[in-house]
Amino acid sequence: MTPNAPSIEPLAKDLLSLSQLSRDEISQMLDTASELKRDYGPFRTALRDKTMVMLFEKPSLRTRVSFEVGFTKLGGSAIYLDHQHNRLGERESIGDYARNLERWVEVIVARTFEHDTLVQLAEAASIPVINALSDMYHPCQALADALTLREHFPDLERIKLAYLGDGNNVCHSLMLIAAKLGFDITVITPQGFAPNSKIVALAHEIANDTDCVITLTSDASAAAGHHAIYTDTWVSMGDETEAAQRQAQFAAYQVTESVMAMAAKNAIFMHCLPAHRGHEVVSEVIDSPQSVVFDQAENRMHAQNAVLLHMLAGNCAPQHCDDRSPEHAGEIVPG
Ligand code: CP
Ligand code: NVA
Prior knowledge:
The chain is of the alpha/beta class. It has 2 domains: 18-137 and 300-317, Rossmann fold (3-Layer(aba) Sandwich); 141-296, Rossmann fold. It contains 12 helices and 9 strands. It has helices at 23-38, 62-73, 94-101, 115-124, 139-152, 169-181, 197-207, 243-250, 257-262, 283-286, 293-312, 321-324; strands spanning 51-56, 77-82, 107-111, 129-131, 160-164, 184-188, 214-217, 228-231, 268-271. It has a 5-stranded parallel β-sheet with strand order 7-6-5-8-9. It has a 4-stranded parallel β-sheet with strand order 2-1-3-4, sandwiched between helices. Helix 1 packs across helix 11, helix 3 crosses helix 4 (115-124) and helix 6 packs parallel to helix 7. The protein is globular and about 55 Å long. The termini are far apart. Bound molecules: phosphoric acid mono(formamide)ester (CP) and norvaline (NVA).
């Protein structure tokens, strides 16, 4: 990093869920992300000689490109490992996989079907593991969304966001970031598709400290008066077998021009993408001036780079074998 680069505070080893970050850490991260967005100059060599492995069990456009381009902008290099045809744990144990990678690279970014795969990777690896989406969470998306919201509503604590659709990974991370940062969130899902009750309970617990109001309902008209209207696919990766029946179950939750009309004046429309036009959102909304979906996509890179900088600050060297058993470092055992 150049001498003018702002100081970067280290974080917890891994980022699997936003519950691992404090409110202050999230705010710092968003500040760093805004700083990066303004000017990458001071950070151009911050991660020089560092390598990131990106392993994906599911497809990706935004996450893959934004991590790879972002890491390169900070001076590092990235390797993509395609696990769409052989899941982690099939060829060798997840622990062995992690213990190999930590000998070569400084950080693992992973998109997995099961959240537990990420947990196992993080437990086994001495290097940071970042969740690039699991069946439970999408923390990097929520950080980028908070950055986007802050760009439109600097006084974030005064806004209300309505999420319409499936109570999925994106919804879970949005609830957690709302609870942490103190903005209100109304989660509107069809019966039977509410978010995971344990994550709802956790979000409520966090919200007690921040005055965030979390409302769960199946009434689509509850989106009235909200400052941001957010939706995501009705069929997440891994849920494809239920695709046909979900179309009818979710039809009343489509974001249309009339939903935007009942939202607050100057409300924004948000979507993590990829979007399914004519399903969860109509083209008239996603293509309207109220839509900030491509700002969200751009902000993925800045938010993730902030995470990487904070995570690797003071922790840039991989844990080589000498660090693990210092008493034996350099020792030659007689034959
Ligand atoms: N929003 C998001 O994570 O997009 P990708 O699936 O294309 O990475
Ligand atoms: N909920 C979606 C998000 C895609 C970025 C999924 O998991 O497929």
